[in-house]
Amino acid sequence: MNHQTHYQVLPLPSLPFIKSRKYNIETEQLQTIINDLDCKELQEKIQCAMDKIIVTWSDKHDTLVDTLNKLEKTKCKLQHQLLIQSQQLDKSIQQIQLYKSRHDKQRKSISSNRTISSCSTRSSGSIVLRSSILMDGDDDNNDDNEDEFDLQSVMSDSDSFTLPNSPNINTPVLSPILSVTNNENTLLKYACGDGFWNTIARGKANKAEVDNLISNYFRRGGNPNVAKNSDTVKSVKEGYGLIHAVIAVKNTSALHRVLNAGANLEVYPLTINVQDKLTPLLLAAKLGYMNGVKLLIERGGIELLNQTGPYGETCLHAAVQSGSEQVVQYILELNQSLLKETDKNGATCLHYACITGKPRLITLFIKEHKAQTDPKDNKGETPLHYAVRNRKLKVVTKLVGELGVYPNPYILKQVPTPLDLAKSGGLKTIVEYLRKLGAKTTKEMEKRTTTIHSSNSSTFSGESSASGESITTGPSVIGVRKYLHTKTSQILRNTFDL
């Protein structure tokens, strides 16, 4: 390959214009000059120099392209962050308006109640009006300071800023006016930096460090009703309150300090995740944190029936989810009626125990606390359905084989039998076990029911035709009728156990 062919193949870029030089050499002119040279040695030197120039400019070109790509990605990322933060700002403004409207409504209701009480006092001749007016003025000032939404604390960390979700109206959050004591706001609000929360999250193995951190925080006048405003770190999730955080790391000493500081025991985390909207007691029960459950109930005086989760589950449901027999037994000793409580889907604690696969809890509920063996949820499914659907062979064995639970509950065209569920799920072991204990499919159950009804009707018709004249006479015929009627009722009642 000669030098002319060599330069035609290479993607030679145009030479830049250099101000220090008075001339600009074009590529074609350069090639013409090279072609005019007769000295091969000079041509080779010029070709080598051109190769170096091309490599240098190619490297610079690639570097510039990579830099431009990185800048473009950074620009897109910054634009995305700006969009998210602008949306969060709009939501925070709506949140402020929501808190303000609730605050105004509560102030109006309180002022109207106090006006009524002051009028009644005036009519009775008591001279208390002056003092009640002064108290109203003091309370108004306190309310203005206490219920003001702290936007500065929300926007303190723009990188990790996350908007709190709108509080659920149906959740038992205490009123910020009626429950405020010692000028402390019992509603959660974002505060504290990432270092504070991350120390708590990573301090499960070093509880003394967390306890010392929280002790210093309260000694400086910190508010116990603050929430985490950064991403989830280990078990301490985004939006958790301080009381939720110390429960998540199971630090009993720190929990004592938070309770003594006046933390709200019925507050929900500031999160958009429905499954995380748990009160401190429900969270402790769900984690199987016995010391925390006991401390919250004994120190806080919590009404267990009023503690419900996002799906309507009680603290006993939450304890069953943890699988902690100790926590379950403790809650049952306080209120055994929780066994009959259901969640929004109509599932009892026995249903939950069949989901988690804890045969010991099932025995505890049925044998020791006399719970119903086959309660139905809103769809009509029993705990046995739940055990089969969740592939819990040990639970199926406990229910049917040991506790004698009826193996064929179903609702025609609505709820299949447990055997149908096991077949549809390909659970061969459960299918074989249920078959041994007399389980049937829905078709088999319907066929057997039809056969029994037809045989019963033929029995009654045969009796009346065969008895002839004697059917109307004699006490023996009446006895036979009673016997047949009793026997038929027993057959109908016990058919499915045959």
Question: What keywords describe this structure?
Answer:
498 residues; mainly alpha; Serine Threonine Protein Phosphatase 5, Tetratricopeptide repeat; 3 domains; two-stranded parallel ribbon; 2 strands; Ankyrin repeat protein
In terms of topology, how is this protein built?
Layout: H1 3-9, H2 27-36, H3 40-123, H4 129-146, H5 151-154, E1 189-190, H6 194-201, H7 207-219, E2 226-227, H8 242-248, H9 252-260, H10 280-286, H11 290-300, H12 315-322, H13 325-334, H14 349-356, H15 359-368, H16 383-389, H17 393-402, H18 418-424, H19 428-436, H20 442-467, H21 475-494
Parallel strand pairs: 1-2
Read across the widest sheet, the strand sequence of neighbours is 1-2
CATH class of the largest domain: Mainly Alpha
The ordered H/E elements are HHHHHEHHEHHHHHHHHHHHHHH
Low-confidence stretches: 15-24, 118-185, 463-478
Radius of gyration, Cα only, in angstroms?
39 Å
Fraction of residues in helix = 55-70%
CATH fold-level topology of the largest domain: Serine Threonine Protein Phosphatase 5, Tetratricopeptide repeat
CATH superfamily of the largest domain: Ankyrin repeat-containing domain
Average predicted confidence as pLDDT: 76
Give the domain tally: 3
CATH architecture of the largest domain: Alpha Horseshoe
DSSP E strands, number: 2
Distance between the termini: 97 Å
Tell me the major beta sheet. Answer: 2 strands, parallel
Briefly characterize the structure.
The protein is mainly alpha-helical. It contains 21 helices and two strands. Helix 8 (242-248) runs antiparallel to helix 9.
